[in-house]
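F.,

This is the one I mentioned.
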């Protein structure tokens, strides 16, 4: 590393403290020149630390499955406020489970915790200003700037789109948005309700149409503001 190179401050959110310790230990191999900043096991704490100037990391690894919230929600809360924190979603489950939700929430990529080479590639790609998706995946990840503007625009349009209560969603449409906001996939919601994933998608699409939203992410943002 050249003497003038500034170390990249990295932080992580994971409800498994052993996983945080392991990440801290392997960080130099995953991202040479990186500097471990902090590890958090609670969603609210991670959001607070990520947004505070003194503890803001350049790269935040966000576990998608948490005890006190969802990684998807954490990504959305941070990305709506700033584009200065790069977000990389990580999961012990199949990346397909969370990829679309993570992309909609403003993350720059997603990677499996079990795939160390891919983890290294993802961290390097994202910190270099790019995005990362596993081979063969078409999730529409954006860089931090455009993702921030998209979510910021969605938040700015809430008052007119919500219409002061003019739009009334059905019970299933509301519940679909609530569960999607928590990070569940169409398939997981369908399994919970004992229905087909296509039916869940229909509820989601109807919610988007009724709210006059530009996208599912926009509809979720409107729902969360109510």
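My design for it:
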């Amino acid at each position: 590393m050249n003497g003038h190179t500034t170390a990249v401050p990295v932080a992580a959110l994971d409800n498994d403290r052993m996983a945080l310790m392991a990440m801290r230990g392997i960080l130099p191999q995953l991202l040479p020149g990186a500097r471990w900043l902090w590890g958090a096991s609670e969603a609210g704490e991670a959001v607070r630390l990520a947004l505070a100037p003194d503890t803001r990391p350049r790269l935040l690894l966000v576990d998608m499955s948490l005890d006190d919230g969802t990684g998807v929600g954490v990504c959305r809360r941070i990305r709506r406020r700033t584009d200065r924190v790069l977000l990389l979603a990580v999961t012990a489950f199949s990346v397909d489970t969370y990829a679309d939700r993570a992309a909609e929430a403003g993350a720059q990529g997603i990677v499996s915790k079990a795939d160390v080479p891919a983890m290294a590639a993802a961290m390097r790609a994202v910190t270099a200003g790019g995005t990362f998706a596993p081979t063969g995946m078409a999730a529409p990840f954006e860089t931090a700037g455009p993702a921030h503007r998209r979510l910021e625009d969605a938040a700015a349009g809430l008052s007119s789109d919500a219409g002061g209560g003019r739009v009334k969603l059905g019970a299933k449409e509301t519940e679909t948005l609530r569960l999607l906001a928590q990070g569940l996939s169409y398939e997981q919601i369908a399994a919970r309700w004992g229905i087909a994933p296509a039916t869940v998608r229909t509820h989601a699409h109807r919610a988007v149409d009724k709210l006059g939203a530009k996208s599912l992410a926009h509809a979720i943002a409107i729902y969360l503001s109510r």
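The radius of gyration is 18 Å.

Talk soon.
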